[in-house]
Structures
1.
Amino acid sequence: MSQQPDTEQIKAELASAIIRLLAKRTLTDASASEQIGIAEADIAFIREGNVGGLSVDRLIEILNALDQRVEVKVSPVTVRGPLFRILQYMAELDVKIPPEEYEKVPTDLAQNLDHYLYGAKKAG
């Protein structure tokens, strides 16, 4: 029997990480809003722990905007079929890659993929 992830627990942990980073950087709601592009009211909701209206993906985007690298891993136990084999292969590759190689990957790779592949002008 596959166990579904507890989305609310994940959201709470992500919100907690956001709050720690905001405190560590001594960012006010206004300055954080400007830096990460989220409404001050949403930051207030995060500080209050009221994150029901925000998706896990959005919370991860906020952490990444604060330069906190977030990795999302799918448990192969909950996946079957071709996707299971793909995830298994990717996990085998991941073990072979030294951690220092991951440090070389630009933090804005997804946003500026065309820049890194083709030399296009960087976005943002």
Note: The two ends are 45 Å apart (CA to CA).
2.
Amino acid sequence: MKKLLFLPLVLIAIFCFAQDANEIIGKPVKIGTLLVSQNDLPEAMNWDDAKEACRALGKGWRLPSKTELNILHKNRKKIGAYTDEDSLSSYWSSTVFKLNFAWGQWFSNGLQSEYFSKSTRYSVRAVRNF
């Protein structure tokens, strides 16, 4: 029951206190078969909240897979919204490693790891297929 109440509060907070979905998505960048939101979600968040926040952006928006996240890293200049400060961030992927861990990637050095604790807050960039 607590989870059912918490999730709507998180989503409301994301959209009331930050940017609306259109501002986050902005002008999506095409990379291969992906559309990448122009901006990160406004706040770092845990893995479960990150997945829900991406879905809340609209039809088809989601966390990138581990492979897709690496594509984003390799094309970070093309995406254009990443700053030097953003490049120090760690980003979530949708790829699960174990019950309490998922894959993520540091944009400062491109290193991927399966030991991103799902309860830790990391940056989020949404993608969808087109």
Note: The chain has one domain: 2-129.
3.
Amino acid sequence: MTKEKRYSHLNQFERDRIQALLDDGTEQKGIARILDRDPGTISREINRNSRQERVKRDKIRGDYEAGVAEQKAYVNRKYAKYEWKKINNDNDLREYIEQQLMNYQSPDCISGKMKREHQPFYASKTAIYEWLYSNRGQWLCPFLYSKQYRPKKQREKRTERVMIPNRVSLDNRSDGANNRSRYGHWEGDTLGRAKHLPGTVGLEVVYERKARYIEAEKIESLSPTHFNVGMRKIQSRVDPMKSLTFDNGMENRGHKSMGVPTFFCDPYSSWQKGGVENANKMIRRFFPKGTNFGEVSDEYVKLVIEILNNKARKSLGYKSAREVMEEKSLLVKNYPEPIALRG
């Protein structure tokens, strides 16, 4: 018989039972069966609300008192929604969060970095978000990536004929590229206003799948010739590429001259190279659709890419993509020094 799930808080009666059963030597799993609760619920209750919050089994019994536990649970529930206020009361914590936000770090990454760096202060991502939405932190909300971009409904694209000579399907890509177990596998794409018009200045973007590293280069047009020129410049700055994955855009017709195994997504399936698509969304934070890259300086493009590569990533253990690339020696020795960011 399947046990019905319950999501109600423990009450005073249940806490009295827990104390009595612990004093009688009952194991936590036995207590859970008697109270018809999940074992994890009982374990968290004992660990969180014991007088000294000891976690070793041989020291738990005797520390748990039902009255103390009920009071602690009440206080935690009452003041949980005010956790964000400690950011206002701690100058060092507040300044750290402000500095990270102005460097385009997300609240989740800021919280994770505090733990990784063993900072003397801490705030959860929920507390940071609540502080941001208060009148004290609203001025920093424009730095939030999530406030700028929201998922849009996908529209069906009309059938379009494209011709890529010697096209190799994504299905033939190696396992090391598919499961992100090897460095050196990249995805590529372009950004530009009115891509179909000749002479359009564009931005070539590539993305390293395992390190989440982004490279970009302005190109004179979105023609295959200029696309390959930009790719060669990018290749000169990173460790030799093992593969490249593209969509079926006409700028990729000259892929055979890149000297790298190239693979192509299925028609109208850009989600198959989701890494570079996500990188494009982050870049669009600074260069909205319709941007004429002919009016954007090379220095500003480099600054934007540096900001994104210095952004801490939860998927990288709250390290930045640049940190990972440097640790794995995936940047050429004469790679330019990072542009100075705030702080």
Note: The chain has three domains: 12-81, 84-145, 170-327.
